[in-house]
Amino acid sequence: MTPPTDPTAGEPLAYLRAATAGLRHHTRTTAPETSPAAVPDPASRAQIDALHIHLTTLHALLDQLAVTTRRSHPGEGGHLAAARTRVWQATEHLHDAFHAAPSATGTAPGAELCRPEKALEAGPPFLTICRRHVVTTVQVRRRTTPAELHSPLHGHATHRAD
Asked: CB of 107 within 8 A of CB of 99?
């Protein structure tokens, strides 16, 4: 199914479509076989890192859209802000999954290596996700309350239009 086109959107929409197509392709190529004997491979740390990059970038885009839209259309901006928060929650889970996943040596480096003072230092290559996560966390805390970050999604939220 092809998403509707918006001739006024220009180039950025084309990039979003390409990113979406890439995700769809990856989903199809990594789908496990349907035979009962097939044991799917667990997610690799590289896959988790790539998804983390995608979600942190999507979070930044939703943040920009929420801020600019909320000025003229508060209801729409509220929904975009809620989507931004949910994407951040998913990003947090990916970061945690990265630390739980075994490395090439078979060990899983703990989250204690991801403290801001460690993550922002020049460290092992696997801490790239931690650096990205810490930088994005600073941005998240500027725009989102702790209550919003820790609230579960129950049903469909409505946002005031005023």
From this structure: no
